[in-house]
Amino acid sequence: MKNHVPVATIMTKNVIKLNSTDDLTKAEALFKKHHIRHIPVVQGNTIVGMLSLTDLLRISFADAVDEEAMEVDTTVYNMFSIEQVMARHLVTVSPETTIREVAEILASREFHALPVVLDELLVGIVTTTDLIKYLLAQY
């Protein structure tokens, strides 16, 4: 297996993002539409937080996983802002960080996605799924 492959080779570059001023209804719609579980929260292109589907489910009684549901009771979403629900103290990596280093971070922490930043600007996201796909491609 290659030891010094940069995470830029496996990260998602066309990142689905939320602005810190967006609402949680929009977040749920993005999770469902794109079948994703993590969305970086930005102000401009600077990352300020990360919202996960798990974060949203913690505050909601809505079935946010059911893509068939057309109407969701969003009352609880109006009680919170994205900034109140998102994770703020993020671990980030650069595009040059090796895939091995990313795997070590994800294996030792309790999260499943890392924002990839260059000069404080969000340039990608790497998830445990990206790592698994990379490892499978090696065999």
From TrEMBL:
Coiled coil: none annotated. Keywords: CBS domain. Residues 11-67, 86-139 form the CBS domain. InterPro entries: CBS_dom, CBS_dom_sf, Diverse_CBS-Domain. The keyword Hydrolase does not apply. The keyword Cell cycle does not apply. PANTHER family: CBS DOMAIN-CONTAINING PROTEIN (PTHR43080:SF2), CBS DOMAIN-CONTAINING PROTEIN CBSX3, MITOCHONDRIAL (PTHR43080). This is CBS domain-containing protein.
